[in-house]
Design goal:
Number of strands of chain B: 9
Helix content of chain B: 25-40%
Number of strands of chain A: 0
Distance between the termini of chain B: 71 Å
Largest sheet of chain B: 5 strands, mixed
Strand order of the largest sheet of chain B: 2-1-9-5-6
Radius of gyration of chain B: 19 Å
Order of helices and strands of chain B: HEEEEHEEHEEE
Strand content of chain A: under 5%
Radius of gyration of chain A: 16 Å
Structural class of chain A: mainly alpha
Largest sheet of chain A: none
Order of helices and strands of chain A: HHHHHHH
Oligomer: heterodimer
Shape of chain A: globular
């Protein structure tokens, strides 16, 4: 019998990570007045998902599932399509860059994946805003500030995710997963 | 390919994405032309036009912010600090506010979001109402307040691109 690409156990794990992203977005609030600050939680979960289910497409599936959940919950103030596409893009861009960089347990790789995944979200929001005729920034460097903020919080989230993966390995979680398989 | 080269490539991708967005934004800023009637003031890119009874008075620019005091409040919906500049102070820079009556209508709108809010000068002039602008993440202005019809994210006017003052 042909084996499936993702096992049921892996699909359950990925769905849980997707739900965790949405819950983190709702429940974890920081007092920071900077755009993209939620990336610190968001990208950490994405990196952990990439490490726990190390298959191409895993993080895209997390992005897609969290996008559907978030859109149905009415999250974001730019409409369901924007919410769905931006969440999905986080997963797709993280997946694509992991095809190049591979091991998310490497902290440099984790940080870079966090940055590119998070920039994917910014790219969708900016592109949709531009297409729908959003005005150019009141401040000339407003967008630059936003990009820098997304890069910093994406990198921090990636690092947090990478450190979590290292801690999980140290705790024997991956050995436990191997036994499950 | 070595891991070092892969990492360099990833860093390059980050620069390409960031540079691409900035380049398009710069082009948009340079090519943005707001049509103004003959004899009307010319609007700087990104500035927010202020109209009084249908006539363009001026454009609110970032340079004007230096002359304004910042105001802030914590919004009840998300518990976040909204920090920026009071609309009454912005209007005072360009209009003789002593000529405004309490019932003078002030409409703040966003064409891209298809949102607008109608306020009276009495509401705007009251500092306790915190009718103010806050800078959004992408550098545009959003109008927020503690007024009941302007105190949640859905009611805020994001990406503001027009202020109109109408004398009844």
């Amino acid at each position: 019998m042909k084996s499936r690409y993702f096992s049921t156990f892996q699909l359950i794990l990925l769905a849980l990570f997707a739900a965790l992203i949405v819950v983190a977005k709702i429940a974890l609030k920081t007092p920071l007045q900077m755009s993209g600050h939620s990336g610190i939680f968001w990208m950490a979960i994405v990196i952990v998902a990439a490490g726990v289910v190390p298959k191409p497409g895993a993080v895209s599936l997390v992005g897609l599932t969290s996008g559907i959940l978030a859109a149905f919950l009415g999250m974001g103030d730019l409409g369901a399509l924007n919410t769905f596409l931006s969440y999905t893009m986080v997963g797709i861009s993280a997946d694509l860059i992991l095809l190049l960089l591979r091991n998310p347990e490497n902290l440099v790789v984790a940080a870079l994946t966090g940055v590119i995944g998070h920039l994917g979200k910014l790219l969708v929001k900016w592109a949709l805003g531009t297409l729908t005729g959003a005005p150019v920034g009141f401040l000339a460097l407003g967008m630059a500030r936003s990009i820098i903020s997304y890069i910093i919080f994406g990198a921090l989230g990636g690092l947090l995710g990478g450190l979590t993966l290292l801690a999980l390995r140290k705790a024997g979680f991956f050995a436990y997963l191997a036994e499950k398989r | 390919m070595s891991q070092g080269k892969r990492i360099t490539l990833a860093v390059l991708i980050i620069f390409v994405i960031a540079g691409g967005i900035m380049a398009v934004e710069m082009i948009r800023r340079q090519t943005q032309q707001t049509p103004t009637a003959a004899g009307s003031p010319t609007l700087a890119p990104g500035s927010i036009p202020i109209y009084r009874d249908g006539a363009l008075v001026n454009g609110f620019t970032p340079e004007a912010l230096q002359a304004l005091e910042e105001a802030s409040f914590v919004d009840a919906e998300e518990g976040k600090t909204q920090q920026g500049w009071l609309l009454r102070d912005v209007l005072a820079l360009y209009l003789d506010t002593t000529s405004l009556k309490p019932e003078t209508q002030i409409t703040v709108s966003s064409s891209s979001r298809k949102k607008s809010v109608d306020l009276t000068w009495a509401e705007v002039a009251e500092p306790q109402n915190h009718v103010q602008f806050d800078l959004s993440g992408r550098g545009t202005l959003k109008l927020v307040s503690v007024l009941e019809r302007l105190d949640t994210r859905d009611e805020w006017v994001q990406d503001v691109d027009k202020i109109e003052v109408r004398t009844p």
